[in-house]
Amino acid sequence: MKQLGWRTIMGGGALAALVPGTAHAADSQDAVALGLVLLGGAFLLFLVMRELMCWYWKVNEGLGLLREIRDRLGALEAVAGRPAAAPRGAPPATTCPKCAAVHPGDLAGQFCDRCGAKL
Ligand SMILES: [Zn+2]
């Protein structure tokens, strides 16, 4: 194996693999193997550094809390989203079709005091 410069390591392997005859077979195989080893090492380093950053900034902890909040909110919505039965004896309410304002009482045929739309 001859001395490998950065250009040979990073580009020579791929170039030799793509274009046959541009390098000696043994040299190109060495360069490809070295490139793969470097790529694998860089990937392992990335994984280790990623885990370190996630631990330091407590990303996983925050993610767990966010998921818990989401699940609890979903459960709350499931309970609160059900149509509530109107209390007995409560006066009916009229909802404006235009601005969605809720007016107490049955105001059918009258006009919304907010937007003026016919209720
Ligand atoms: Zn209105």
What does this structure look like?
By secondary structure, the chain is mainly α. The protein folds into two domains: 6-80; 87-119. The chain has helices at 6-18, 25-56, 59-80; strands spanning 93-95, 102-104. The protein has a two-stranded antiparallel sheet with strand order 1-2. Helix 1 (6-18) crosses helix 2. It is elongated and about 90 Å long. The mean pLDDT is 82. Bound molecules: zinc ion. Zinc ion is lined by residues 96, 98-99, 101, 112, 114-115, 117.
**How confident is the prediction overall: mean pLDDT?**
82
Q: Tell me, briefly, the overall form.
A: elongated
Computed over alpha carbons, the radius of gyration is 34 Å
Record field, number of beta strands: 2
Spatial sequence of strands, sheet with the most strands: 1-2
Helix content: 55-70%
The number of helical segments is 3
Written as H for each helix and E for each strand, in order along the chain, the element string is HHHEE
Largest sheet: 2 strands, antiparallel
Proportion of residues in β-strands: 5-15%
Low-confidence stretches: none
Q: What ligands can be seen in this structure?
A: zinc ion
Distance between the termini: 88 Å
Could you say how many structural domains there are in total?
2
Helix/strand class: mainly alpha
Helix and strand layout, with pairings?
Blueprint: H1 6-18, H2 25-56, H3 59-80, E1 93-95, E2 102-104
Antiparallel strand pairs: 1-2
Bound molecules: zinc ion.
In short:
This protein has 119 residues and is mainly α.
